[in-house]
Design brief:
Elements (H helix, E strand, L loop, with lengths): L1 H29 L4 E8 L2 E6 L13 E3 L5 E3 L8 E5 L6 H13 L8 E6 L3 H11 L5 E4 L5 H5 L3 E2 L8 E5 L5 E6 L9 H10 L4
Parallel strand pairs: 5-6, 6-7
Antiparallel strand pairs: 1-2, 2-8, 3-4, 5-9, 9-10
Length: 205
């Protein structure tokens, strides 16, 4: 029994070590990112966003995130398809949960060629649990917790919080940024209708 408990303890320590390393590395990397005061507020206070500001019409930066099995996923995996990215600070909170479930429901109304993604900095374990509990099965839910690559490449990482600001990004079939919506207050839901209308404009005829 003692030997078994010792092995379990070692496994737990090892797992915690490896989980903590990407986060620590991400913090070091963000120190070198450009910072800008945004029009986004959290509790009425303006937040500072890290990374280069995204411009509508530019080529969408590639990024690397992970799915709930820690498998790397990149924007290149969706090349040639319209993509809507729903960005949330923390998936298992009230507004983020509503946002994720709303877009999950919208998938059935869209052509099969469209890809809807949710990205947050939650650990994949938490995302997987949430999706199972809330039956979010129609869209990919991806984590930026390992490299913070999406947040820094798209200028959506909140300084000193390690969270992504609430946003919607639409990328057309040519890989261009066709639409972006930065929700002005972190605790507010996005304008779903405006985003879905913009998505329909980039769908193939």
């Amino acid at each position: 029994m003692f030997k078994k408990n010792l092995i379990n303890t070692k496994l737990l320590v090892t797992l915690c070590f490896f989980i903590s390393q990407p986060a620590a590395l991400a913090v070091d990397l963000t120190a070198k990112l450009p910072a800008r005061i945004s029009n986004v507020t959290a509790g009425g206070q303006q937040v500072v966003l890290l990374g280069d500001e995204l411009k509508t019409g530019q080529t969408a930066p590639d990024f690397r995130v992970v799915d709930n099995n820690f498998k790397a996923v990149s924007l290149a995996d969706y090349r040639g398809k319209p993509v809507l990215i729903s960005v949330v600070p923390s998936i298992d909170t009230g507004i983020c949960s509503l946002q994720t479930k709303r877009f999950n429901d919208e998938v059935a109304k869209l052509p099969d060629s469209v890809r809807l993604l949710t990205i947050s900095t939650d650990l994949p374990f938490a995302q997987k649990r949430f999706c199972q509990q809330e039956q979010v099965e129609s869209m990919a839910v991806l984590s930026d917790a390992v490299w913070r690559d999406f947040g820094s490449s798209y200028g959506l990482l909140i300084k000193d919080m390690g969270l992504l600001t609430r946003a919607i990004i639409i990328i057309d079939q040519q890989g261009k940024v066709a639409y972006q919506q930065l929700v002005p207050e972190l605790a507010q839901e996005p304008d779903y209708d405006a985003a879905l209308q913009a998505l329909r404009k980039v769908l193939p005829n």
